[in-house]
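User: For my dataset I need records formatted as: sequence, then structure tokens, nothing else. Please produce one.
Assistant:
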Amino acid sequence: MAKRTKDIVVKTQFNINGSRGKSVKSFISGYVTRDAATDASVSWVPPTDRPPVHGDGVAFTLDATAISRDETLALADRAEELFQKGDRAIQQMVFSFSPEYLTESGIVPEGTDVLQKGAYRYQYDDVRLRHAVQAGVQAMCEHEKYCNPQMAAAIQSDTMHLHVHAVVWEDGMSYSRKRGREEKGVLKGSSLNKCSSQIKRSLESTKDLSCIPVQQYLTPYYLKEEEEPFFVQEPEFVNEYQKILEEMRKQTAVQEMQL
């Protein structure tokens, strides 16, 4: 099923009991979040307790802007566990955006040339786009009456069109969307409309064309050093935030000593 506007195209198909592939785990871990197509989020802060790995910061969920590779694999394992029961409909979704709308909504800077595949890499505001998709999928799930919706998604920039792949599933003990003994697979057209409308509403309400924080601007020195970077070093706004937190901790410690 596909819902199309001039700005956003939402396509979805469901996989139940192997109707479209025998494994959703490999679809999430090997296709949706694959290295060649994805970038780590500028919001991702590398952990200090272990070396970074390929895939850190690539995937996002309904409530997390960026997750580690280990967390991505754990989500894929859980989706596979439910899928193997044979009665769960796993939604495989794709969100595509017109080049004009990406510029108009402030996701891509004006003047960005897209002359070949992969030209969007490091050239888009991944955080706002992730948050918008989160809001859209959440609205869709609420309209469909999901009990405990889960999502594993990633932005892909390896083609001529910037797009997002999302795998959505019900992780409740039971499910309200029933078709006989199975979970209903087909989503309502009105649900997809709510999804795309909420994505647009989110992007338009957060638009600020004066500053588009793309990786090309935030970490130019790092992108030049590594041909295929797999994580993003702490950008300046993260450093400043950490300084504020540290100052607050010091002030709290001083106040406690004075008591």
